[in-house]
């Protein structure tokens, strides 16, 4: 079987390793903002846009959505939905923007993003810093990503000052706002950086959240004449019993997919590293094995056909393939992009494509749905 169709100009992909030392000399959040700003400027210029544009084709489906390819961008990189089109030039099949909350909020005080270079990892305690729902929707509406065939997920959360007992109000408000503009909606209940948010993963709290969301989604589907899939993003720090309860609840309330996983509060894999004791969620390769275990358990509990997106610690193509083998239908990248650059997208797709070839194919209940490679 042929490798995926790659339309790649080498300028951006080959220059990132040269630019990384300069970026890593800056504060992590400053470097993040500078990178996104530079990417946007390159996109805004017609000449550089054509030089940097990349298209990877390896078709499949996810939650009933037709994907250009099964490698997506995880939520958190573009919290405000302001860089969707520019990020789309990096070759993703789908992009997830957010997390957005009903009202704007500053998030936690800086510094709140830390590199652990020896582990190729990050620790963040951003705290859902974002421009709020109204501006977020304006940004999303200005994007041409969806009309150009890209799949867009919008990730929703609650404001930090909303009591956890009223969290459902924030999620309902966000669902109402993003529904007309999303291909799917992600319910983020697993960030460790908003007080008590992870308690929403507990049985009774999850039932109390998903019940109203299901009913509101039905009303919105009637109003807009289309069904928008919903997914729930969960933590890697769950017990087997907790995973099983969540899986059963997702089925009970007709949730279309699950994203496994968010960042971890564990520091076992990075003991002794600089910044290892900073509060927040750890991402990057130390999360990979944790997320694999969650994906494997979800696939066992949810059956062969349920949509699972694997995210957490993908640093190379081999780890992307391990996510698929564990049961994921598609994957998302974040921290790996910070350390490896956009070439990681193509590398992951090359490995997935090779796994679909007759020489490598074997029965796998969690495999990416087969599609012709163009």
Topology, please?
Layout: E1 5-7, H1 10-24, H2 28-44, H3 46-52, E2 55-57, E3 60-62, E4 65-67, E5 71-73, H4 84-88, E6 94-100, E7 113-116, E8 121-124, H5 133-142, E9 151-156, H6 167-178, E10 184-188, H7 203-224, E11 230-234, H8 240-252, E12 257-260, E13 281-283, H9 288-302, E14 307-311, H10 317-326, E15 330-333, H11 335-340, H12 343-356
Parallel strand pairs: 5-6, 5-15, 6-9, 9-10, 10-11, 11-12, 12-14, 14-15
Antiparallel strand pairs: 1-2, 3-4, 7-8, 8-13
Helix pairs in contact: 6-7, 7-8, 8-9, 9-10, 10-12
Write a concise synopsis of the structure shown.
With 374 residues, the chain is an alpha/beta fold. The protein has helices at residues 10-24, 28-44, 46-52, 84-88, 133-142, 167-178, 203-224, 240-252, 288-302, 317-326, 335-340, 343-356; strands spanning 5-7, 55-57, 60-62, 65-67, 71-73, 94-100, 113-116, 121-124, 151-156, 184-188, 230-234, 257-260, 281-283, 307-311, 330-333.
Report mean pLDDT, rounded to a whole number: 92
The main sheet orders its strands as 5-6-9-10-11-12-14-15
Radius of gyration: 19 Å
CATH overall fold name: TIM Barrel
Q: What's the total helix number? A: 12
What share of the residues does DSSP label as strand, in percent?
A: 15-25%
Please mark out the parts with pLDDT under 50 across 5 or more consecutive residues, or reply none. Answer: 6-10, 363-374
Q: Helices and strands, in N-to-C order?
A: EHHHEEEEHEEEHEHEHEHEEHEHEHH
Number of strands: 15
Question: What top-tier CATH class fits best?
Answer: Alpha Beta
Largest sheet: 8 strands, parallel, barrel
Helix content: 25-40%
Sheet/helix structural class: alpha/beta
What separation lies between the terminal Cα atoms? 10 Å
> What is the count of structural domains?
1
What is the CATH superfamily label?
Aldolase class I
Overall body shape: globular
CATH architecture: Alpha-Beta Barrel
